Every structure is written in C-alpha cells, then in structure tokens.
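$ ./design --mode recover --in tokens.txt
reading tokens...
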C-alpha cells in the first residue's frame, strides 16, 4: 500500500495546551493504512488499556507537530514576536491570539502555506522513520 501524505497532514497538529490523558491520540494501522483515535481503539478495536495500544505491532503513534511552537517560529522568521507579545493579552490561549494577529496583518495565506510545509515535512520524516511507502501528490 501507498500512503497519500495529504490524508494524514492535519491529524499531526498538536496543541500542548489541550489536555489529553494519553501521550498520543492518533494512531496509524500498518495493516489498513487508516488512522484511529485512542477512543476508537479502546472502544471497539479490542484494546483494554493505552499500554496495550503502545505494545501493539499493528498500530503506532502518528507524528505530532507542535502548532503553538510552529506559530512562534513563523512569527520569529518575520521578526514579529515582540509585536505579538504585546498583542496576546485578552485571548483564551496563544493559538487564538495568533489567529487574530495574523488576520490583522493579512498573513493568513502565508501562515497556511507555512503550516502545510511544516506538517508535510514532519509527515514525510515520520513515514521514513516507520518505513511507510508514501506519495506526495495532492
């Protein structure tokens, strides 16, 4: 089987401020090349504990790209971190502030391209690490 990189990109988004009792929420099956949530695996796939999933030879955790750090890198590369630091107050979290900030500056399209580039790179590295044959076609 060949994994289409586009099908897994956005599953790799990771937000450190969102609490999750599991180290990894999304898992990849090397049998059917499908992504499953921990809840699916525990609820209907025959696993009893999170450790059972971790010990499986069939499922392994999907890559995680820290989106908040990626947002900071995006701003840093544009010398906007200081300005963002003054803007961040009054938002529920950094991600919400970031989205508002880039909209104010008209940088949404640049951000979406940047985020996609980072996610693709992380997905490709993950595929190579796990010897998964992949295709980059969109």
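writing sequence...
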């Amino acid at each position: 089987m060949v994994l289409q990189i586009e099908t897994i990109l956005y599953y790799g988004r990771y937000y450190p401020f969102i609490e999750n009792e599991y180290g990894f929420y999304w898992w990849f099956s090397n049998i059917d090349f499908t992504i499953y949530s921990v809840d699916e695996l525990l609820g209907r796939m025959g696993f009893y504990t999170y450790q059972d999933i971790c010990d499986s030879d069939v499922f392994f955790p999907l890559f995680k790209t820290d989106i908040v750090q990626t947002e900071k890198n995006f701003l840093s590369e544009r010398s906007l971190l200081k300005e963002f630091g003054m803007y961040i107050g009054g938002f529920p979290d950094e991600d919400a502030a970031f989205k508002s900030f880039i909209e104010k500056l008209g940088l949404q399209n640049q951000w979406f391209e940047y985020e996609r580039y980072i996610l693709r790179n992380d997905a490709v590295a993950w595929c190579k690490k796990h010897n998964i044959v992949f295709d980059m076609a969109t």
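exit 0
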